[in-house]
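ESCALATION

Customer reports they have been waiting on this structure for their group meeting. Please prioritize. Original submission:
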Amino acid sequence: MKYIRSKVCGNGYMTKWFLLIVAAGLIFSTSTALATDDAVVESLPFGKQWVIDQGFGEHLPLPMGVAWNFAWIKQDLDLVDISLTSSPEDPLHDTIEMMLPIIDVVPDVVWAENYASNFKFDVWLTPMLNLYAMVGYIEGESAIEGSTVIPTSGLDELSAEQQADMLLLEFMLNATATGAMPGDPDYVTFDDPGFLPLVTKVLGVSFDTLMFGIDITGYSYGVGLTFAGGYPVNYGAIDSVFFAFDTNYTKAELDVADSEIKSLTFAPRLGIVTSALGLPLSVYVGAMKMDMTQSMSGWVNYSGVEVFYETVQESIDPWNYLFGVRLDLTRHFKFTLEGGFGKREHIIGSAEYRF
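Update from on-call: job pushed to the front of the queue and completed.
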């Protein structure tokens, strides 16, 4: 299906990656400086001596880490709000502005597909509490497909001036199309199902359907925490079991004014650790709750008319299920791969260095 494209972007490609690399360098240099401070390293995580005294010290991760993360997410969205405004320079501006206040968009399909990468710095503040910060880059697309209707029940909510504009537009369109006058059998009123087709016939602008795509680029940043714990069981091939509760808040500022994506994520995970393959391998299952809101605006050429849109979209179903694996190549290098399925699909990969 072909969508009319609207770009929500602006800055140069090289500039984006230059700034991202600079941010990653700052995170790495800060973390390295902390790592070389013996007093800081020796004290983290706070309370580790108690874990060591219990005989579980070998299971403690190194206190700090830097990671590169990649994520692909695709999901259906709910169109919470949309407003359309025509360009003042358009010859039909006045006529179109008469119509827009009474048109409702009925969405059929609204979806988003995003690719994100970020650099993360984290620290185990206590043996069970990890804090982290992220900075990254996001790109993707969102599409809206629907129909437009005139809700007759809502016409009385229009101002007297708007109702007068509609009556004038109604008279002009009928006079141009068929010469019909008010009261004639073939006169089409603006609350008649045939009114939108009449607009298309006379003005050459179709308001019957709405279909366009939005290309997205921008920067993201966020903070989060993980509460986790485990216990050695040494049962068969299973070395230990663990749980983790992760939550984070992320905001992406897109490359156009007043456009952004906000998400609040909560993900419980439960898994096992096995060394049956010669290296520690974690296998886990869980779920993810992502409350996401996309607020976007921009210009799109729709049916030959330059239209400025403002739209707000939210997650239809915030929950999905997940399955993942994590390989500890050494105590310092770790790799994670995770897949999510359900109403929202995702793939998350991570390469991590701990010190």
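Sent to customer with the following note: The chain has one domain: 4-79+106-147+208-354.
Escalation resolved.
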